[in-house]
Amino acid sequence: MTEHFEPEIAHSNNAARLEFRNVSMTFPDGTEALKEVSFSVAAGEFVTIVGPSGCGKSTLLRVASGLTTHSNGECMSDRKSLGYVFQDATLLPWRTVQRNVELNAELQGVPEAERRERARQAIDLVGLTGNEKKYPKQLSGGMKMRTSLARSLVMKPSVFMFDEPFGALDEISRERLQDELLRIFDHEGFAGLFITHSVPEAVFLSTRVLCMSARPGRIIADFSIPWEYPRQHDIRYSPEFAEMCGKVSESLREAHA
After folding, report:
1. Which residues of the chain have pLDDT under 50?
2. Distance between the two ends of the chain, CA-based, in angstroms?
3. Domain count, the chain
């Protein structure tokens, strides 16, 4: 299974917003992080990657954003319209929620009145209205992550990448933010690429789940998730959901046996 898997990739790529073609990455110390990774993400598609620690999941995001240069292959993305949410909310402690959300637009030279209005809309979209004047130290972990989401939404990205943004949250906060993210995705229709260690999180959020092997990371399985959006919270407790999680988990276990 893992030796001959051919990942699905769109070859007529008019709708693709992000694409990896045979991307490999070897670090200067000789560590081979990625090996011939190929897949694409279209507008209105939410793709999640799961795999063991150190398999190169986050490296893929850094390659797509231009933070890391890959060794071989091609990566195509619109970096002028790219949102990136990190594991940490990375808020500036001396700025209020409003001013943190405005930051990307400010750096891009968006006029003040326009960026304030964009920030207002983004804050409302993530459910933080009424908290605009609070500072990061006054926010819960979930509220900080909502602020980080809003900051990227201000620029209306066509590609939105998430590097385990909910990993440090408690289970209740994590599920609430998953619900919120799907609502935002359904509203905005961006191309989403999400990294997580959690199989249930991957299955709940995604149109597709990709499984990666241990280092050097490569795509070993590609699962289409059948449920339409918007997804109901309680789908997590259905037999069909458990069955899909089992298939993804089994694929990972087989690869690392």
Report:
1. 1-14
2. 13
3. 2
